[in-house]
Amino acid sequence: MNAFLQSLYATLPFKEQIFLYAGALNANFPSDPSNLLINLHQLFETMKKSAELGSLEQIKLSEFKKLMPEPFNSSKDQQDTIDFGRALLDDIEKKTKGSALEGLIEKLFTCEIAHRYECQECGNASENIDKAVDFPLSFCIFNLDFLIKI
What we know:
The protein is mainly alpha-helical and about 150 residues long. The chain has helices at about 1-10, 10-20, 20-30, 35-55, 60-65, 80-95, 105-110; strands at about 110-120, 125-130.
């Protein structure tokens, strides 16, 4: 969770929009401690102040964590960063509909992945394009036996 939130904070266009529309956040959404967007803005404010002061003070995420869906809000187990990020960005996207921030997640973080399927026998092909906020990377595993000297 920490690494993903730090990455969002380091994503300048995202951070700028959160700060730019901080007034809109408070106007469009009730000043409610259970509001994810208001808490995200407050978290970013705390991170900004901490950076300006050169403070290494630990930022407590317990209140922010409570706003996330299960298993992220209560589990003490290690959670997958991609799953956390997907849940957080989906929640932000839902909560920004009708506000000045609507479409921000799609604009900044969504990519298109083209899947091409081709028949080895007849050559017919089809292509599907999906939108995603993450994408898989395949790595070829090389045989490194030649590096081992006996």
